[in-house]
Amino acid sequence: xxxxxxxxxxxxxxxxxxxxxxxxxxxxxxxxxxxxxxxxxxxxxxxxxxxxxxxxxxxxxxxxxxxxxxxxxxxxxxxxxxxxxxxxxxxxxxxxxxxxxxxxxxxxxxxxxxxxxxxxxxxxxxxxxxxxxxxxxxxxxxxxxxxxxxxxxxxxxxxxxxxxxxxxxxxxxxxxxxxxxxxxxxxxxxxxxxxxxxxxxxxxxxxxxxxxxxxxxxxxxxxxxxxxxxxxxxxxxxxxxxxxxxxxxxxxxxxxxxxxxxxxxxxxxxxxxxxxxxxxxxxxxxxxxxxxxxxxxxxxxxxxxxxxxxxxxxxxxxxxxxxxxxxxxxxxxxxxxxxxxxxxxxxxxxxxxxxxxxxxxxxxxxxxxxxxxxxxxxxxxxxxxxxxxxxxxxxxxxxxxxxxxxxxxxxxxxxxxxxxx
Length: 421
Known about the structure:
Number of domains: 1
Structural class: alpha/beta
CATH architecture: 3-Layer(aba) Sandwich
Oligomer: single chain
Order of helices and strands: HEHEHEHEEHEHHEEHHEHEEEEHH
Number of helices: 12
Strand content: 5-15%
Radius of gyration: 21 Å
């Protein structure tokens, strides 16, 4: 049992790895040791899954397309400069007004939008579409690993931090399945370890598991890792204070992003972070969706507040960070009889970072007239989501062979959206 296998198969459903500001000396020594081994300053990709299929047309509002207002009589977001109107971005697209916290990132060109993006597979199943997006192989269910894990495999070095990939979720997401070590964290109170194929709670037995394996395989790196984990058991959440006046919303998603920011600050070799929008948000708005106000707007408000707080908290560290949002598919262009929207196709993604060529909406917008829609009902996909992923993998994280990252798909520079410098 080598270290990589142990960390992977144990599942290590870790507690929140936060509160570094008040860490005892040994944890600072742990972080220092990682820096000596090249684990200190790393490029980090933060991926956010809006599970449930967010309505991209009411998130990134095409107020310049008159058909938008014809097919969404009760849920359309008003034009800019009207009451509760969209926040104009480029004269054609705008933010839902609930996304006001992100306006500054757009104006400072730290935020870009990729519109009409999605999967070439036409499934309207949440489960299948999420699986395809996380595996990076649309239409193929037999893929064993996830696209983020393949990125980690492609950039592996001789000395790897066990915290290269962290998911702030209850279980490891599909995107991080694979050979590269990954850990899933939730909250300190939920600390547990899942060893091998078993799910027994090993609270209090963590050191024993280590001692049984340390002499044979885990070595000093394992010892340092478990020292860090022991710190998590006794950390006091109240001791941590975000920097620069950042205020995270009191939601699952807000807490996840705060903890990811803490991990980045800790300098322990984080390269890929994953989270989703948690149990607070229901993007699957079949009824009573609302437009500038209502159900969706409330979700978008806390969503935007969390992302804005994350960038404020990290400050200059955003030089090394790219944050990317995704959702399995969009929603129908027309509102339904329940003043909501149903499962659709094309959608919008948001990317944030100091290396992002922001202040621009990328993508080929076909329009919302009946003959421009996919199957006469959905926004057409003109950008494959793998092109967006590939740019982040290559330009930000340094992956070389994109064809291995996305099997059976010829991702290349000509297909990139050019959103990263």
